[in-house]
Write a structure and sequence with these properties.
This protein is of the alpha/beta class. The protein has helices at residues 20-29, 50-53, 71-81, 95-100, 103-125, 129-134, 166-185, 207-216, 236-249, 266-281, 309-315, 323-336, 338-347; strands at residues 10-15, 35-41, 61-65, 85-88, 136-142, 189-194, 197-198, 221-224, 230-232, 234-235, 255-258, 263-265, 291-294. It has a domain at 10-197 and 235-260 and 299-321: Rossmann fold, CATH 3.40.50. Strand 5 (136-142), helix 7 (166-185) and strand 6 form a beta-alpha-beta unit. Residues 16, 18-22, 41-44, 46-47, 67-69, 89-93, 108, 112, 140, 142, 171, 194, 196-197, 203 line the site of nicotinamide-adenine-dinucleotide.
């Protein structure tokens, strides 16, 4: 799938392109020779450019090492990139880190989004008529802004906001800013709220890569609380498909909820990974014996689940990958890229130990 060419060449600015989802999007867009790709990223602990550097078209990628909380630097980057399309993915993204220290989340996710919106709006105002009409700003957000579901029901485009963690509160604030810039200034924004992603190049502090690496290294696999919390998992390539459908055919001012329709408890996810590794590595014990139930995350949302009917119906999107195939691919990727994992962990001084509360329950 490629972005349709509205006119000769398009300049595409991706914020957070050195992160997990932004990197996947850039790798995909680099296949399209008519797109000039600009990546604005502060290059934090969660960043890594190796995935992009492996692409043949890597040289077409232009990196700005810029922190969105710096207005002047953001302005300069937008001026140079001269974008027709902006995908805004840059954010502090890990809930546990937001509980430990929320300030970077306010600075990046709220102030950073405000700065980008202002700079982008000014840029858009000065475009010629044709470019102005075709300009799009895609604001990428999460289902976590809607809070926590009980046993039944789904989040959709009309769900009320009810964020519970500093991370989700900061993302909710950024969603409200994006919405306000559309209504107040007619700034051509489309917003998305997506469920939990998984796949290659995800920083190993999130549940799936952390579990794989802990299991491979025979280290305890921490499960918060009783492991019954539910997430709706989506393979990252399917999320990127959705973003491309949205840029091609999405309606300005609309929001699209994106989910995988793969609800799993955390315990199911961890057991699934352990079973795969049991077969693959053939050790003389089960990796499930490494599972350790630890004290729960404060404010731990019970269940997320997305109703994606709107994007399915209007934009003809649906996930192409089955959960099982995508999960197996992901596990294989981490097994084959142990060096990448060691490098990102070393670079960030991240030990894989949980931040914040770490007292074990057992
Ligand atoms: P990530 O943590 O892997 O990458 C985020 C990138 O943004 C990093 O490279 C980081 O350096 C950059 N960044 C952060 N603050 C910045 C700033 N102030 N200035 C410039 N760059 C900055 O995150 P991800 O998982 O790739 O998530 C990308 C986006 O998608 C985020 O907005 C997140 O809220 C959203 N999202 C993620 C998921 C998921 O499951 N990972 C699900 C739904 C939505
Ligand atoms: P995470 O990957 O941090 O994503 P999010 O908090 O954005 O959903 O966590 C996914 C789920 O896994 C969440 O319910 C918390 C839980 N979890 C654990 O049980 N153990 C862990 O070590 C981690 C990182 C998460």
């Amino acid at each position: 799938m490629t972005i349709e060419i509205l006119y000769k060449e398009l300049n595409v600015l991706i914020t957070g392109g050195a992160g997990f989802i932004g990197g996947c999007l850039i790798r995909r867009l680099l296949n399209n020779r008519k797109l000039n790709i600009f990546n604005l990223d502060k290059l934090s602990y969660a960043s890594d450019l190796r995935g992009i550097e492996e692409c043949d078209e890597f040289k077409k990628h232009c990196l700005f090492k810029v922190d969105l909380s710096n207005f002047e630097e953001t302005k300069k980057s937008v001026l140079i990139a001269d974008p027709d399309i902006i995908f805004h993915l840059a954010a502090e993204s890990h809930v546990d880190r937001s509980i430990e220290n929320s300030k970077p989340f306010i600075e990046s996710n709220i102030i950073g989004t405000f700065n980008l919106l202002e700079v982008a709006r000014n840029h858009w105002n000065h475009l010629d008529k044709k470019r102005k009409k075709n300009f799009r700003f895609i604001h990428i957000s999460t289902d976590e802004v809607f809070g926590s579901l009980g046993k039944n029901g789904y989040f959709d485009e009309n769900s009320p906001y009810d964020p519970r963690s500093p991370y989700s509160a900061s993302k909710a604030a950024s969603d409200h800013l994006a919405n306000a810039w559309f209504h107040t200034y007619d700034f051509p924004i489309i917003s998305t709220n997506c469920s939990n992603n998984f796949g290659p190049y995800q920083f190993p502090e999130k549940l799936i890569p952390l579990t794989i690496l802990k299991a491979v290294e025979d280290l305890p696999i921490p499960i918060y609380g009783n492991g019954e919390n539910i997430r709706d998992w989506l393979y990252v390539e399917d999320h990127v498909d959705a973003l491309i459908q949205i840029i091609n055919n999405g309606e300005i001012g609309k929001k699209y909820c994106i989910g995988g329709n793969n609800e799993k408890t955390n315990l199911q996810i961890v057991n699934n990974i352990c079973s795969y590794l049991d077969k693959k590595l053939n050790k003389n014990y089960s990796h499930k014996s490494l599972i350790k139930f630890v004290v729960d995350r404060p404010g731990h949302d019970k269940r997320y689940a997305i109703n994606s009917n709107l994007i399915k119906k209007e934009l003809n999107w649906k996930p192409k990958h089955s959960f099982e195939d995508a999960m197996n691919k992901t596990i294989e990727w981490y097994l084959n890229n142990k060096r990448w994992c060691d490098n990102v962990k070393n670079k960030s001084n991240y030990s894989g130990e949980r931040l914040g509360i770490s007292k074990s329950k057992i």
